[in-house]
Amino acid sequence: MNNYLEVRNLSKSFKGFQLHDITFTLPKGYIMGLIGPNGSGKTTIIKLILNMLKPTNGEVKILGFDHVANEQEAKRNLGVVFDSNYFSDEWKISQVEKSVSAFYENWNTQTFSEILEKFHIQPSKRVKELSKGMQMKLMLACAFSYDAKLLILDEPTSGLDPVSRDELLHILSEYIEDGEHSVLFSTHITGDLERAADYITYIRYGELFFSGGKDELIDGFRIVKGGREELSEELSKKILGIRNFSTGFEALVRTEDLKPFARLHVEPATMDDIVVFTSKRGELYE
Amino acid sequence: MNNIWKSAKLDFSLVKPYVKTICFTMILPLAFAAINRSLLTGISFAMCFIAMTTGYTFSITEKNSMERLYGILPIRKSDMVMGRYLYMMIMGFIALIVSLIAHPMILTLLGETVGVFDFINAAAVGIFLFALYTVFQLPGYYKLGSIKGRVFMYIPVAGFLVTLLLITKIPVGESKLLFTVIHSPVLLMLFVVIFAAAMYAASILVSIKILKNKEM
Fold this sequence. Notes:
The complex is a heterodimer of chains A (286) and B (216). Chain A has helices at 42-49, 71-76, 93-101, 109-118, 132-145, 162-175, 191-196, 214-219, 233-238, 271-278, and strands spanning 3-14, 17-27, 31-35, 57-62, 65-66, 78-81, 150-154, 182-187, 199-204, 207-213, 221-227, 239-244, 248-254, 265-268. With 286 residues, chain A is an alpha/beta fold.
């Protein structure tokens, strides 16, 4: 099996929000970043994948299994980390293991102990005594203890300090090293993905803006800068997003549309630039 | 290990930090039994009180946003529901056994005589009341959650009061069948078990349907 996660034509309607026709695939052995501004539909996609929400349309396959018809099989090798802990606050770490391990045939107690030690988590502590970063590591430790093939992380870095964020990225890089594991990493902090992700799926206002290689996304856009007088009508048509200053402008354009901007100053775009400039639904920044 | 049993064990681990409170709810009805000098009253109160604790699992789950944990575990939603019913029935069974041992002891110490029929009668009524309360409570909690569905916590209290009101109005003497059932320990217990099983089957089906359609 080459694809660990297949999402096809996924749609979901809420009052006031619609997730429309989302399609992407995550191959085995890679990290995919699921990016988009707050409220763009990232958590909805993850909840739909996990069958916690019912889609209006579309299908999802986790490790080759349909996420509804074969829910049990699909979730057997799936690990999930949310932005906040999902264990009982009153549980001791040893109780977390006792409660969760029963559901996974390939749970390895020794691995769990080793990971706790590596993450500096004391088994005698209660969940509520752990910091947010430690709670995130505890969720990861559980997923690693049954050797989850696919890891889904929903905004795991929000609220974490830079050191913890860096640690998480290091852990994920180690996790996929053997080529047998994949990660879907939802975040609005795109800087986290610049280093770690191989693929990017960018959701904008419930619609798929891009899904493909990270480099393909970054190479696909450029930032152009110039004086106000250099912004012609012809150029404006090619601009995806613009910031105007008293002295000039900076704008995001597709690399393929760069030709008319040849005389202007051109810089590579970061993922942050792409998300920020394209998140105004075509409205221009003033 | 069966998934239903695993799910029930998970529920037990949820309420583990609250064991003392639950034990207290089992001890308190002893006072009612002693005051009323009645095994039936004591058992009825005990089952009413323990039924009120069935919302604990829902409250703890809601407080800790644990629906996300349940959402990622490799287990069918129907097994989750049946696991919770199993947990709740075991709690009811433990409460009944504890009460059936402790209450006659207290009453004997107070000089009351507790006969075998009193014992079976109290057990049957205890099972019946507990089933009656919980079959409505659990679907309510599944539908509304523990906060919005707090009203379901009071079903046992309301149910108990209604039972007290109705029990004197049952025309036992007029119905030969009812008279026979009530005066035969075997028939009474059989009737209660069959009736409780039927109620639970219906309640479980409703709860499964609710959970399957619920979006988390």
